[in-house]
Amino acid sequence: VVIVGGLGLGLAGVVVMAALARAAPPDEFEVSDLIISPYEVQIGYPVSISCLVENIGTEIGSKTIICEVDGAIVAEQIVTLAPGESEVVTFEVTPEVAKTYSVSVDGLYGSFEATEMPVADIRVENLVISPTEPMVGEIVTISVTVTNIEGEAGSHTVYLAGDFRAEQTVTLTPGESKVVSFEVTPDIAKAYSVSVDGLHGSFVATEIGVPAYSVALGVLNMTPKVDEYVEWWVDITNIGTAPGAPTIKWYRDGSYSYSSVSPSIEPG
């Protein structure tokens, strides 16, 4: 698309300014949601560094994600994504010196603190996503188990990342466990990525289901004599994507006779 504007200069002529709208590059990546967990850690214990990578272009492509700690490259990963697809990329580093470390991942910045003093050894495990195939608008529960393995009582912030963002802080005594849950609601039909403190999963949301029916009418004794019994029925198949209980209206000689409601019929 060319946008043209002009400025009149009398008889000397016209200056014409034109701007050409730039097409979106075939593959363009956006990196967001840097999460560093835990923020405070005893030396010798791992720290998880994660971010969300999304292809916002129009073609499949690859990108190298580089993780730097204190200005030095410590790890890198290559991700390949289709248009509109996203993925959580996670790195793990283990500090050996007690100090504050700076972190950089593709233009995102953060830090964490390593200490010689014992801190609560809190583990996040057992990622559960339910349901894994929800309808659009249906609530999905994402939960993890947080356990203080040993050492001191302490608090830990559990971060939900990926296509959703939330956090919860729990305080645990040594040996104590708690289940931390998040509820999210998909608003469009697609695959959603989930990351919780270095644990990864996904679910796929589909369009809201609706019932649809195929109906076949059957009649026994098509040519009855006077006072003979005639039987008729319908065979209903739900060819839609959700259960349904159709109302059946019966007509005789073109005139309404009565209605009946079918029991719920599952798809297929």
Automatic annotation (TrEMBL):
<dbReference type="Pfam" id="PF07705">
    <property type="entry name" value="CARDB"/>
</dbReference>
<feature type="domain" description="CARDB">
    <location>
        <begin position="33"/>
        <end position="105"/>
    </location>
</feature>
<protein>
    <recommendedName>
        <fullName>CARDB domain-containing protein</fullName>
    </recommendedName>
</protein>
<dbReference type="InterPro" id="IPR013783">
    <property type="entry name" value="Ig-like_fold"/>
</dbReference>
<dbReference type="InterPro" id="IPR011635">
    <property type="entry name" value="CARDB"/>
</dbReference>
<feature type="domain" description="CARDB">
    <location>
        <begin position="126"/>
        <end position="195"/>
    </location>
</feature>
